[in-house]
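Request:
Um, any thoughts?
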Amino acid sequence: MTAKPLLTALLPLVSDLSRDLPDQERYRRLLQAMRGLLPCDAAALLRLDGEWLVPLAVDGLSADTLGRRFRVSEHPRFQALLSRPEPTRFPSDSPLPDPYDGLVDAAHVDLEVHDCMGCPLMVDEHPWGLLTLDALTPGQFQSLELDALQAFASLAAATVTVAERIEHLALRAEDEHQRAEVYRQASGQDKELIGQSKTHKRLVEEIRLVGGSDLTVLITGETGVGKELVAQALHRASNRADKPLISLNCAALPDTLVESELFGHVRGAFTGAHGERRGKFELANGGTLFLDEVGELPLTVQAKLLRVLQSGQLQRLGSDREHQVDVRLIAATNRDLAEEVRNGNYRADFYHRLSVYPLQVPPLRERGRDVLLLAGYFLEQNRSRLGLGSLRLSAEAQAALLAYDWPGNVRELEHLIGRSALKALGQHGLRPKILTLEAADLDLRAVVPAVQLATALPPVGAALPEGGLREAVDDYQRQVIDECLKRHQDNWAAAARELGLDRANLSRLAKRLGLR
């Protein structure tokens, strides 16, 4: 390869180094220029994060690839690329499985044999990540000079260095630490927040904003949206990140044990209290206490919690001794606590003390193509569990995921991918190298929006039920509300949002119709 084409490809990227570009755009331009100079069917930029490789940008690979997290030890090609400082070109007949088998964005193609090459990105003489190229045609890379890829790797390393330094200059030192903690994958892969939609990015920015404070945060959202993950991210973004995060599911305990779990007890405080025991508040001292399903707390416990939050002092059950604690509280609920206050089921003073900073987690149906990234994350998890070379979604399956309403949110998606992968695998006599999930494997039943239920109304002129027009309208309203509640698993706040009603108005209407 002559120097002129290489220089022509590199010059715009060198110019980009002095421009203030979003990281995603900077990486996209890098891959686009590389594919123009080194013809291939797919390219990717991955960051090394502990024992994982995290895709930052892909070109020519399926959308769900960005949601996958590749454990290096499970992918020998990645291991080989990271073991050498210079580019590596694999033979077309290499027996090593390729991490991208089945992921190249080509219709009706299952990759079995193809060309693959890659190069580590070195920043400060340490491996930062990888650049990879894949081709569907065997032998396509044999005539390419590895010097061109090395040049791109050097420029890519400069690009990521510039991106990191721009971010560093834009934030104060403590803000940099908080943002790094929010996005950190590290060893706890189950703690990662994945998404690129505007609503998800707003949530991450709010986490970064309030994470560094000691404000009490009330996380709200439908069942299955990931409220616990948000609580974990808030703790990691705080100055208490090196202190314990203690969690308690308030709905999992009978009322008689909640107080003991929170405040502890002394010997003889109640039947079965054979010794002294610290509660969750004392265990979380210096750190964070996360109360999940806080809407289930009894009124008596709410009053005692309010005192602890205001003064930092508590008494163990059966004791008069005061214990001082320093705890940041994060709470979560899928209930409408303001409505519970109006109904007399929740203390107003406790509610206002909890909701110093309310944080709404968006439902999955409002996050657009994030569903494909999350699907990719769960696909890679199940690929590893099932011992498959590749686990992917067909184009029809991806469309089905995007069209579905997700009443159970991310948790429903996680269970769906695991169940569908296992069922699809069971339909093969021999274990396939590439397992593709079709729309039929997902078995997603279409969700009919409430507005479409109008077609279910009896035609004009049909006989009215006994009671006349009023009873006919009431029947229709019962049908609409009942169907909506089923879709949202009896979450009244979510149903009210879909129906375009105030939560209190929906509650009153449901009572009149005999639904509550």
Summary: The first helix runs from residue 3 to 16. The longest strand covers residues 126-135. The radius of gyration is 27 Å. Residues 379 and 391 are 6 Å apart (CA to CA).
